[in-house]
Write a structure and sequence with these properties.
six-stranded antiparallel beta sheet, alpha+beta, 20% strand, 506 residues, 18 helices
């Protein structure tokens, strides 16, 4: 979508359709040159909020569609509001503007004084414009009934705030965060549960989900991600996307996965300033958590220094631990210290989680008819080429020497066909092709198209037989791979591009 331009050259209708078609996220600001302006907000192509000179929603969009000219600017990084005022789809809004051009343009100034006169002239069209006037956004943020969160998280750079999951394309959101090398967290809040996904440079480090079904209801990893995804898919609650520094994310990750170094220390026993100096002298990287009746305090340490400190009551990050330490005035406050684990924690494999979830969903309805079909199609499709040379090498050295005629009579006719298919490619183009370079080229195509999710495709290509048939068989498997947040049509397109690239070499 264009970042800026003239409405005389590119109409607002075209901009709306382009934003929808390209599934754009951001704010479109338009000005008509006479002092009027309007802001339209998109999330993955969905126009969910609009405001213009005191009006909002459908009326603001219809009014702007009738402006004769002006300028526009699109900001894909603008902070999105939580209001959801646009109820009609873009085609309906365009139709409403075309049916009542003059009246729609006048609606912003006189929608209240002429509320009784408007229905007489254009009853249907006027109702479409005036109906959504009240702003109906997120009136309150859901709070889990159990009042807990997986771990206390600080405030940071708010990228998206209180996004209603009912109109969030969650797979596309996660894919975008991965491609942009995002570092921060995605938080889910519903009336019953809360969840958290930690990201560092585009990798999902960990997922936590707390349904509050029991005192220790916190789950981690694959199970947490599945429940998190289920809630978003069902349209429960809201999402926050907040950016943080790498040091803070590392500290939150260790706060989740590391074992306590010291635990169940009462504040009445501990000289906190002396403790922090001790941890500083030891260059400890980890966290100090303080739980008291007045809230929870967190101090993130990096090489002994305070990388950030905050409390559950005041989420702003400070480089001084004073607010967190103030919680120790409660003598019954409990202190827990965690040190960064020396072992490397494997990032959360989101692809594997959802692939397994999809596979189980597909097996359920096909349980009865599935048993016979799987073996036959799977073997020829995936191992047709590799099996042929294996049969040839297995029978050729053994059968001719041990049983020249009787046993090999049925086998001998099979040997020439087995050798024949591999011989033409080898003689025609096999020796002239650099298979390692071709595979590397195809793997680069997969990485350009899928980013972090290209691993499975690259593995299949790398294991393929170095021949035209072998590479083609590997490419044929690409559309059937199950990858989280990657549509099958996208994989099919990638496979077609790979076939075209392969053919260009011979």
């Amino acid at each position: 979508m264009q970042s800026q331009g003239s409405l005389a050259e590119t109409s607002l209708k075209s901009l709306l359709e382009a934003a929808q078609g390209e599934r754009s996220t951001g704010t479109l600001t338009i000005r008509n040159g006479s002092g009027k302006s309007a802001s339209l907000y998109f999330l993955f192509g969905h126009l969910f909020h609009a405001q213009s000179d005191g009006i909002a929603g459908d009326a603001a969009v219809v009014s702007a569609l009738n402006w004769p000219g002006g300028e526009f600017e699109f900001d894909p990084k603008a902070k999105l509001p939580s209001d959801e005022t646009v109820k009609a789809g873009i085609p309906e809004l365009v139709q409403a503007a075309e049916s009542t051009p003059e009246e729609a343009a006048e609606a912003p100034k006189q929608h209240k004084p002429n509320a009784e006169e408007a229905p007489r002239d254009h009853p249907v069209a006027e109702r479409k414009v005036e109906a959504p006037q009240p702003r109906r956004g997120v009136k309150h943020r859901p709070q889990p009934k159990h009042g807990r969160e997986p771990i206390p998280v600080p405030a940071g750079q708010v990228i998206y705030d209180s996004l209603k999951t009912s109109f969030v394309d969650f797979p596309r959101l996660i894919t975008t965060l991965e491609k942009e090398g995002y570092t921060g967290y995605v938080r889910l809040l519903t009336d019953d549960a809360s969840g958290l996904i930690l990201f560092r440079e585009g990798l999902a480090l960990e997922c936590m989900y707390d349904a509050g079904e029991e005192p220790s209801g916190l789950v981690l990893g694959k199970q947490a991600l599945q429940r998190f995804n289920d809630d978003v898919t069902a349209g429960h609650g809201v999402l926050d996307v907040v950016g943080l520094s790498s040091e803070l994310i590392d500290g939150l990750h260790e706060l989740t996965v590391s074992r306590p170094m010291y635990t169940e220390l009462y504040a009445s026993w501990v000289d906190m300033k002396a403790l922090l100096k001790f941890l500083n002298d030891r260059k400890l990287s980890g966290s100090v958590m303080i739980r008291s009746g007045g809230g929870t305090g967190v101090i993130i340490l990096s090489e002994g220094d305070v990388a950030g400190a905050y409390t559950s009551e005041s989420r702003d990050i400070s480089d001084k631990p004073d607010r967190a330490l103030a919680l120790c005035e409660d003598p019954n406050a409990m202190i827990e210290i965690k040190s960064a684990d020396s072992t490397t924690h494997t990032p959360l494999d989101i692809d594997e989680v959802v692939a397994a979830q999809r596979a189980s969903a597909l097996r359920a309805p096909q349980a009865a008819p599935a048993p016979p079909p799987p073996p036959p199609p799977a073997e020829p499709a995936t191992s047709q080429i590799p099996v042929i040379p294996q049969q040839a090498t297995a029978t050729y050295p053994v059968q001719p020497r041990q049983a020249p005629t009787p046993p090999s009579v049925p086998a001998m006719p099979n040997i020439p066909p087995a050798v024949a298919p591999t011989t033409p490619p080898a003689s025609a183009s096999g020796p002239q092709l650099d298979w390692a370079a071709i595979v590397a080229e195809l793997q680069a195509m997969a990485e350009d198209s899928l980013g972090n999710r290209a691993r499975k495709v690259k593995d299949i290509l790398g294991a393929a037989d170095p021949s035209i048939q072998g590479i083609e068989a590997a490419i044929d498997q690409v559309p059937s791979i199950s990858l989280l947040f990657v549509d099958s049509s996208r994989l099919e397109q990638l496979a077609q591009e790979m076939r075209a690239r392969l053919k260009s070499h011979y």
